[in-house]
Specification:
This protein is of the alpha+beta class. The chain has three helices and ten strands; from the N terminus they run βββββαααβββββ. The protein has helices at about 45-75, 80-105, 110-115, and strands spanning about 1-5, 10-15, 20, 30, 35-40, 140-145, 150-155, 160-165, 170-175, 180. The strands form three sheets. A four-stranded antiparallel beta sheet has the order 2-9-7-4, with no helix packed on it.
């Protein structure tokens, strides 16, 4: 029996709930690693991204405050307690930002996308609007990407359908190397060699 290579076959799942906006790739198509298989709109994703953006802002403010308090303490203008409190708040802000970042990574959001969300220079607080509005869909849209080169052998979503968390959206397999499941008798085992070539006839 000819079978798929289980080591090069993967289910592509949804890491959050959302509405499928487009599915441009039909079943049977050749796909390359990183190619977009679908676009999903998700408020759950938007909330996670917003939490990270908020964490970045709080971290930058805490970083600036800690830097200022350290300078004042060195000049004997404020107390050591004020400096220690600012440093503690900076550490808390760092933890909050890291937790939000790890949540996005766990949702399979690429680091390049996360970096765009934190594009402001760390530690620099400008008393004007420092962030341009995000393009429409930047926070809610997510591209479902192919994990490796292969063939799209199964598609379980359609445009307008609702994807739930951990739903299997696609199955991709590398068909350049297949497996053969063959049964042999105990008497035939002595003729088998792991390095031998085998010809399969149907």
């Amino acid at each position: 029996q000819v079978k798929l290579n289980e080591e090069r076959t993967a289910d592509v799942v949804a890491y959050f709930a959302g509405v499928v906006e487009s599915v441009p790739v039909p079943v049977g198509s050749l796909t390359s690693k990183g190619a977009a298989l679908a676009v999903i709109n998700s408020f759950e994703l938007a909330e996670a991204k917003s939490s990270y953006i908020e964490g970045v802002h709080k971290h930058e403010l805490a970083q600036s405050t800690c830097k200022r308090e350290a300078a004042l303490w060195q000049k004997k203008i404020n107390s050591e307690q004020d400096f220690l409190l600012a440093r503690h708040q900076l550490e808390e802000a760092e933890i909050t930002k890291q937790v939000a970042r790890q949540k996005l990574l766990a949702m399979s959001i690429p680091e390049s996308v996360i970096d765009i969300l934190s594009k402001e220079p760390e530690g620099e607080i400008v008393p004007v609007e420092v962030r341009d509005p995000f393009p429409e869909g930047r926070l809610t849209q997510f591209d479902v990407l192919a994990p490796f080169d292969g063939v799209l052998i199964e598609k379980n979503i359609a445009q307008g359908s609702v994807a739930q968390r951990y739903d299997v959206l696609f199955r991709i397999s590398d068909l350049s190397l297949l497996w053969v499941d063959a049964r042999v008798t105990s008497e035939q085992l002595r003729f088998l060699d792991p390095q031998a070539s085998v010809t399969i006839r149907s």
